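Project standup — Tuesday

K.O.: blocked on the structure for the chain from last sprint. Re-posting the sequence here as requested.
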Amino acid sequence: MDPGSILQETGKSVPVETLLTTKNNNDARPHHKYLPVYKGLKWLDVDLPTNGEPWLSGRRLSVAKERGQRSSAELLLREVVKQGEWQWPKHKHYFFSDLHADADAFVASLVASGGVRKTGNEACALKLTSQGKDAIFVIGGDCFDKGPSNLKLLQVIRQLRKLGAKVLLLAGNHDLRIKLGIASVGMDPDPRHDHFFIRMGSKVIPMLREIVDEYLQDKNALKGIPPTRTCRRILYPPKRWFTEFPKMASWVMPDKRMAKELKRLQEKIDAFESDCKSVGLSLRHVYAAVMKWQELFLKPGGEFAWFFKQMRLVYRRGSFLFVHAGMDDRMAKLIKRKGIKYLNKEFRESIEDEIFEFYYGPMANLIRTKYRDVDMPLTRKGIKLLNEAGIYTIVHGHANRHHGQRIMLRKGMIHFECDATLDRHSRKKEGLKGEGAAVTIIHPKRLVMGVSTDYPHIKVFDQKSFT
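H.V.: unblocked you, prediction finished:
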């Protein structure tokens, strides 16, 4: 290898002069001063990149296009960037997605942004930097499930808010599955939502165990909790649900999907109680934990009542649309006609009063889509509507990547895919080494930067270089 080159993860060498660095103060390249400066690394065990490179240098690890496109991804990207007049946010935005109950990964990602300094061993030992005081922290959904502690992650988010950070929460599919599932317990019987709690299956058990360990250790913790038989009746859908639900839900669920839904629910019913017992929970513990969760998250004055109260479905700044999973034609039309404020208002009303209609309706596609054939489509017609509304870029998570953030071109719309597989459970399961950390930075100087422990350089997208 040329001694004047650095080896990339791809195995290809890149001339040193094409890299940007956070260390060399004599670097004359225009992006150097905008790269994040990490504060408090001595308290972390993560390997963050210190050099930057143009986003396209990562090739297939950093940019992709849809099948059937003959032109190169670089050429297509240049064509797309030149379209329209992009409006950039006036303030720096830090985007974090799919934290999945891993507070340590979130803390490391906060440090990676340059907006937060780590000041000690404790997870909440944090301080805003001068950059962080003027920035927007966007958490792109899926705070629950998978990781070691849902509560610890929420405590870190709460601490960030207490420090005065401007924090914006987007809804993720895991967040709303938990919210709707637990909120449904105690509602008036209705086949449309009687199954929502059990539908969560074993995925909810670690969180229930956490609630019991944290809040229900007193010897009177189960006082007033009904007997097991009553708890089972409240938590489980009645037998008649299997005949009533298909009649009420046929308009949103084709026969094949309905059969799959019924089969899966029966499997979860069969396994749930034994899965609970395997971690030391009785159904009385489960019911008590559900009641405590409702108190913490849904009641006014609850310790975490702010979490769902502040949640939005979508967020827009300038030409950038932030959402958990993606977009489709129907929602693009709604945004063009009614705007973002209207969509968020409809979202908040639906998750409070019309949970069945939301969960199986069109809005939920924005927290679920992976642009598969089974998902609601995003076509060039939808892209045109978004462009007419001034939106040229979608920033999202949900579909996880193993080499940091990636630009994906879909029907002529730039998607920044930002789920960089942060939580330790997913990393171990998918063969990624070390602790995860990642942040996507949208900078007013018309830059997007992708920082990740799974890519050796900070990816720098400079809109000016494409025009």
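K.O.: great, moving the ticket to review. The first strand starts at residue 5 and ends at 7. Residues 5-130+138-162+311-466 form a domain with the Purple Acid Phosphatase; chain A, domain 2 fold (CATH 3.60.21).
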